[in-house]
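Issue: copy button drops trailing tokens. Both records pasted manually instead:
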Amino acid sequence: MSANSTQSSVRENELLDPNNVNSACSRCKKEQSEIKSRKEYFCSQCFIRFISGKQRKQMLDEKFRVNYKKTGVDTNVLLPILFNQNLVESLSLLDILLNLLLEQNLNHHGKQGFNLVVVILYYKSSQEDINDFNLFIDLVKKNYLPLNNLKFKLFDLNLFITSNPSILRSIDVDYNNFQSYSIPKLISGESNNNNSNEIINLDTILSQISDSSTKEDLLNIIITQSVKKISLLLNCGVILLSDSMSLLAIKILSLIVRGKSYLIYNMLTNDIRTLENLQIIYPLQEILNFEIYNYFNLKQLNSAEVLNNDQRKRIRNPSIDLSVKNYFRMIENNGYSTVVSTVVKTGFKLINPVMVNPRGIKHCKVCDSVLFDDPIRWLNKITVTDCVAPENEEELSNYQKYVSLLDAQTSAGSSNKGDLHQERTQMDLCYGCLVSVGGVSKEKFVWPIYEDDSTHDAQTDFKVDSEDLLTLQEYLI
């Protein structure tokens, strides 16, 4: 990757303090300071060690260390990177991990504490983006050799939709009783419109959703579920996510706004999942966003092409995540970064919600989260569905006309569905997904629905027989 400097990002976050360029580094007391962070002045090398130390604090487990007495298979660690999303954080974490592995390799006669698998996720990247990725691989080979068992893979997120078209369903939400139904597609893998040969994939589904928050929520669900399934396919017991403290604060508030606060504990906990046997770790959880940008610039990791792709879009109607991100960016720039850490620390103190669902353990068919409460029962309890009774003849006449028109529309819709209406199956959705999919037309929105949570796994989901079929290309260094 090219090493063009992005000084504008540095100035925007006020990382360099020109009034104190002659002050000594607070750590080594020798070098000239270049960066001010957390009321301390750092030279470049001390700041790099400071950031790397924050990462290593989250990975103190014995499984990440070189152990000459260790027997069995080494720990496989997955690092997912999404094209055009949070690339600065992802590439910074990758650089930190590669330097850690390189240090272990050189200090322990070629031995490493764990095997790193980097998966690049994309769904509509151009060939130019793929070429940038190839250049990045060449850079890794040049700067981080010798390293053992370092794999880079490309994964198309469209496989989440296209790999198993037989389970694609339209989702219908009846807001009279808040019940949701899944409706089979007329033609598996194709749109319901018989005059259209458009193949249903992730890009076509997301492009038909006008609400940016709904689109963002569903894409995040696809990314989360795909990463977990990929880790199982590649036998990776640990997933490293590149979310900084700032990004975690954004996700926490966004989940609350979306009505999915019950997912905060599950998102933040580092405990091994009992069913999936996966450990999720945030190595950058104690590092602020502007500190990551500073590390990124000091290490000259930036590629002008990739960064331009990441910052190219200007959205008129920002999503929930983007609105919260702008809020925290303003807070950090005004010197109130402690608000960010307070949000994250509060999130880590939350416990798992108490199960009060009278129907037992159920899972949302869209996001796969546990339904700790019955959203239908709760919504019916707090929602007034009956209108005020007509008080005069004019209101009564208008009401009767409205009911007649509504009955006619319902009858027309039922006749257009034909026998398909009888095939719809009742399904479970969490409150957040009820809100998200409720604003999307069921004729346009499809989703892979598994009738039984216990009958599917990563192999059947992606229709693959081996990890080689999972990716377009594999780079083994």
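Record 2 (pasted manually too):
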Amino acid sequence: MIYAPNSTVDKQLVKHSRDLVRKAIALLRKSDHLVTEHRLRDERGEAQTMPPRHDERKSGQDR
């Protein structure tokens, strides 16, 4: 946190910081649909580039 020796200035800084945090959270909430689409795209890309995984149950039954 930012501290100013002058209590009036300090209060203004705290108020301004809180306002910025509120605005940032509001932007994040509004952008959730964008983030979700990017996350899905990235997961699909990773699934295509990763080698297939071996199923542990199948390998245990083959023994």
